[in-house]
Amino acid sequence: MAAASKDLPRAATLLRLPSRHRVELLPLNPPENVERLVSKFISQKLSVQKLRALIQEEVERDSAGSGGGRKRTPQAMRAIEACLRALRDEETGKLLVRRSDVDEMTEEQLARAQTALASLEKRVVDLRRLLS
Fold it and tell me: How far is CA 42 from the centre of its chain?
């Protein structure tokens, strides 16, 4: 609250409020909104409970008007991007697996990799069908 009160003029009505009342105003921005609500609070001689209700309305109005921030990325998109990151070399952007990596694999590891790749291909086909 100290930081917010620094932004206000010395004659601000906020400074006439007890500290308990000022604490209720912390969620509000910018200082003009604070000053407007404090003036209303004092002129109408509202209770702290009514001040809280006014502040809640103000906060809800501000968050509704701004769209609430960036929209959440759908889980499907996050999963697709995670798969791409797992397969891509961060420095080059190319496939992370190299021929030398495959050459080092045992026959059992190659078989497991082939099975996993077949499963991955099926998932890609299913996903492509869903996105079409």
Answer: 36
Alpha-carbon gap, residue 1 to 5, rounded angstroms: 6
CB 44 within 8 A of CB 65: no
- pLDDT tens figures, 54-97: 888 877 776 665 555 678 888 889 999 999 999 998 888 899 99
Read off the pTM. 0.45
Domains of the chain, residue spans: 2-65, 75-131
Distance CA 12, CA 116 (A): 68
Report the chain's C-alpha Rg in angstroms: 29
d(CA 82, CA 70): 20
Largest CA distance in the chain: 83
User: String of b and e for 79-103 (b: at least 16 CB within 10 Å)?
Assistant: eeeeeeeeeeeeeeeeeeeeeeeee
